[in-house]
């Protein structure tokens, strides 16, 4: 089944049309082309603990990180500016970005001049910006800092982020619909897993890259969003059991090929890649004796999940991941 991509793209279009239809109101002079400000000012507290007040729900928005880009589109709001548009469209195809979105530079160092030229209501950022970028942006445009993640409650933090963006844009009803759809998709996938031979097995989810001939593996522990989803589905996470620790924000660890020898023999080894980059498992490690002799490799239990599912994204990406899990265990 491919529930999430088709339904969410359709829902995004529908929501965009409905928002456009109800986004105007008559003022005292009878001009029905004016923007609806009936919702009044919007005040939110961001990740810095700072209160940010906007005159009305934001419509012209730029995003410096791809998770907030995805949140907006899922809520029916197309961002005006996005960091690294080509990268976003390569790594996150769970939602569709409008072709006229302006590229504002890299995710860590957006172009301050470009942002200032876009007549924005607000810029959504995470705490990954370098230097004094936030202070520079705030000279012309309000900034709201959205938490990148929380390894103590990764799925809960995702929904807090979605709710924050929904409050900023006046799309709380759409956020509630996303939550309902996600819960239904999660329950459906959980049933499929429970009915499969994979139920309860250890899943070592990761991504990897070739660093000058040495393959570096990045495990996704329970504190990652993907780790949180896998836990909800009843899978065991073997990474922490072999001594790998994750960072406090994203629940990501680090190991190498030799470290994989500690994984249980019955491990299901799932990973994410992208055709834009070489696959270290099929390229760099294809003749590596340590890799090829691992029990789960010999058993054929290595699976590359579909490309372009952003592992740090929002509900749309997580539903695409649930689809991929169902296909994998079927």
Automatic annotation (TrEMBL):
Its signal peptide is 1-21
Recorded hits in Pfam families, A to Z, give: Peripla_BP_2 (PF01497)
Q: Which domain of life is it from?
A: Bacteria
Specify the Fe/B12 periplasmic-binding domain's residue ranges: 60-330
CDD domains per the UniProt record, alphabetical: FhuD
InterPro entries xref list: ABC_transptr_periplasmic_BD (IPR002491), Bact_iron-sidero_bind (IPR051313)
Picking any one GO biological process from the record gives: iron coordination entity transport
Which residue ranges are recorded for the region named Disordered?
23-44
One cellular component GO annotation, for this chain's record?
Answer: outer membrane-bounded periplasmic space
User: What keywords sit in the KW lines?
Assistant: Signal, Transport
UniProt cross-references to PANTHER family, sorted A to Z: IRON III DICITRATE-BINDING PERIPLASMIC PROTEIN (PTHR30532), IRON(3+)-HYDROXAMATE-BINDING PROTEIN FHUD (PTHR30532:SF1)
State the family named in the UniProt similarity comment for this chain. Belongs to the bacterial solute-binding protein 8 family.
Protein name according to UniProt: Iron-siderophore ABC transporter substrate-binding protein
């Amino acid at each position: 089944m491919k529930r999430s991509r088709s339904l969410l793209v359709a829902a995004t279009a529908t929501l965009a049309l409905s928002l456009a239809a109800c986004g105007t109101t008559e003022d005292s002079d009878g001009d029905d082309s004016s923007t609806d400000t009936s919702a009044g000012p919007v005040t939110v507290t961001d990740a810095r603990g700072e209160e940010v007040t906007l005159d009305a729900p934001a419509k012209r928005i730029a995003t410096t990180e791809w998770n907030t880009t995805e949140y907006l589109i899922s809520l029916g709001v197309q961002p005006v500016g996005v960091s690294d548009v080509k990268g976003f469209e390569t790594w996150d195809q769970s939602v569709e970005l409008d072709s006229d979105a302006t590229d504002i530079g890299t995710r860590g160092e957006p172009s301050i001049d470009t942002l200032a030229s876009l007549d924005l209501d607000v810029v959504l950022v995470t705490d990954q910006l370098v230097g004094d970028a936030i202070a520079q942006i705030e000279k012309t445009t309000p900034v709201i800092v959205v938490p990148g993640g929380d390894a103590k409650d990764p799925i809960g933090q995702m929904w807090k982020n979605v709710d924050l963006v929904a409050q900023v844009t006046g799309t709380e009803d759409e956020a509630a619909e996303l939550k309902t759809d996600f819960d239904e998709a999660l329950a459906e996938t959980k049933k499929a897993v429970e009915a499969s031979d994979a139920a309860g097995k250890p899943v070592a989810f990761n991504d990897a890259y070739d660093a000058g001939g040495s393959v570096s593996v990045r495990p996704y522990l329970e504190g990652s969003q993907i780790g949180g989803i896998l836990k909800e589905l009843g899978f065991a996470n073997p990474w922490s059991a072999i001594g790998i620790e994750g960072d406090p924000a994203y629940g990501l660890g680090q190991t190498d090929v030799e470290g994989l020898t500690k994984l249980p023999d019955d491990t299901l080894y799932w990973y994410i890649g992208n055709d834009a980059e070489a696959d270290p498992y099929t390229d760099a490690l294809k003749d590596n004796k340590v890799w090829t002799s691992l029990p789960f490799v010999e058993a054929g239990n290595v699976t590359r999940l579909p490309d372009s599912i952003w592992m740090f994204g929002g509900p749309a990406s997580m539903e695409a991941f649930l689809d991929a899990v169902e296909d994998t265990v079927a």
